[in-house]
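Quick note —
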Amino acid sequence: MNFRIEPAGSAGRIERKPDEARDNRKTRVGKMGRWIGVVAAALLLAAPSTALAQKGKGKGKPPATPTTPAAGAAGGNVDDLDAPPAGTPTTPPAGGDPTTAQPTGDTGGGGGGICEIDPSACPKGQDLGEAAKRNVKAEIYAVEQIYALRYHRFELNPYWGFTLNDQFVSHPGPGLSANYYLTNVLAVGLNGNFYSGLNVDSAFNFETRRASRVAVPLNELSWSAALDFTYVPVYGKFAGFSNFIFSYDIYVAGGVGAISTRPIPVIDPDNRKFDFAPKIAFNLGIGLRIFLTRWLAANLEIADYIFPEKLEQLTIGTGPIGAKPTDLGYKTSPSNPDTWLQDGVSITNHVQAQVGLSVFLPFSFNYRLPK
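Predicted structure written out below.
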């Protein structure tokens, strides 16, 4: 800092330079700012913390000031806000220990509300233990109710059959099956077919036989009847036409009975004539039923009728035609019936498709599920 001595007329005054005055002003402003910060911090610390917990509705309103001090303020104790009002006597429950607190309300017991409503129905620990030891036979039904129940119902199945495996002659004809279901999947019944007068020799076979003098032995059927057993291993449902659900079942059938057949005289029709004769026959089949209602179903079945058959002899006797049994050469005569058939028998399979309707009686039924 530089000083300058003024003459005597200046009364010995010391004059500071402008730089010194500016430094002094900065010092005073800095000290004033520090004091202002200290005062603001003191005000913030002195503000009551309860003011931060005031609700929004109370903005602009000063908190209520208690008119009387707290009873234990002088002693440094804090009042219990949940305590009963002063002067209320605390009386222990009758017969209870005055030092033991008595719980009130729900204690979290396992019974819940049922124990409060009906204490006798409240489950007890020993009851749950005994129930857990019991054997439980649980049954879960994947299909709760079958759409069409077959148990103890009759099934009448009229159908029309046509041949699948004989390209030379066909055996169309009507048929009827009648079954009674002993269980929902097992039935016993009768089956019959009628073919008489409906056997058709194919035009191809006739033209071939006429032009080449080559023929194939043919047979025609008259009727058949059998005792059948039916088993239903598969049943279910499927969706069709976008908006419909159809119930179906697949069944297998088998039985034993009789069938009446005879050879068709194609080798020597002028001298040979055959009669129908019954033969033992076995049948096996598999079918599909699609239920249209609970008592009506469309039916398709493929059945194989197996039976022993005598076939026409492919050669013609060389003896005299029209010979009588007493004539010489009758043994080899074309008129002798012993020369009309082949030796032995041939196992014949007649496979036919059967298309019809199944009608279940009675029309309605009742479910009886195990209890």
